Amino acid sequence: MKKLSEAEIQDELQSLPGWEYADNALHTGFEFENFKEAFTIMTRIAFEAEKLDHHPDWSNVYNQLHISLYTHTEDGVTEKDIALAKIINDLVS
Amino acid sequence: MKKLSEAEIQDELQSLPGWEYADNALHTGFEFENFKEAFTIMTRIAFEAEKLDHHPDWSNVYNQLHISLYTHTEDGVTEKDIALAKIINDLVS
C-alpha cells in the first residue's frame, strides 16, 4: 500500500465529488436531517471501515459529519483511502 | 434549562471522574481496545443522547474517542450536559 502522489490523488478526486485533498489527507463534510440520520450513516460507514480494516478520522456535531481519510503507516493518502471515500459517497448518496 | 455557574459545574465534576471543564464546555477522552470497541460505545451513547434529545460533540480516530458536552441554546453547561456525562461514564465503566 504505497502513498499516492498529489497528481494521482487529484486524478482520483475527479470521481469523488465533495472530497478535497489538504494537509496530506482527504476531507469531506455532510449535513443530514438530524442526529439520528447522521449516526445511521456513521454506523454503515463503521461496518465498511471495519471490513476494510481502514478507519476514518471523523467528528460529529448533531446533524453534521466531518471525515478525514489518511493512511497513518504511509503518512499520506493511499488506495485504501480512495476505496473508503468511494464507499462513503455511495452510502451517503 | 439554565446555564450552570462555574462553581456549580466544579461541584458536579466531583462525581464525574475523567471530565474537565474548559472553554465553556465539559470534555473527556477514552481509549478503547480497537475501533469496534470504540464504535460500540459510541452507538450506546448515541441511543441515550437521542433519548435525552441532547447530543455530544465528538470525534473518533480508531480506538480514541473525544467528547465535548455543551448546551448550544444556553451557550454553556447545563443539567442536560451533566446528565449525559453521567450516562457516558456509566456506559464506559
TrEMBL record, chains A, B:
InterPro entries: PCD_sf (IPR036428), Pterin_deHydtase (IPR001533). One of its GO terms (biological process) is tetrahydrobiopterin biosynthetic process. SUPFAM superfamilies: PCD-like. Its EC number is 4.2.1.96. GO terms for molecular function: 4-alpha-hydroxytetrahydrobiopterin dehydratase activity. Pfam families: Pterin_4a. It catalyses: (4aS,6R)-4a-hydroxy-L-erythro-5,6,7,8-tetrahydrobiopterin = (6R)-L-erythro-6,7-dihydrobiopterin + H2O. Transmembrane segments: none annotated. Keywords: Lyase. NCBIfam families: PRK00823.1-2 (NF002017), PRK00823.1-3 (NF002018). PANTHER family: PTERIN-4-ALPHA-CARBINOLAMINE DEHYDRATASE. Belongs to the pterin-4-alpha-carbinolamine dehydratase family. This is Putative pterin-4-alpha-carbinolamine dehydratase. The lineage of its organism: Bacteria, Pseudomonadati, Bacteroidota, Flavobacteriia, Flavobacteriales.
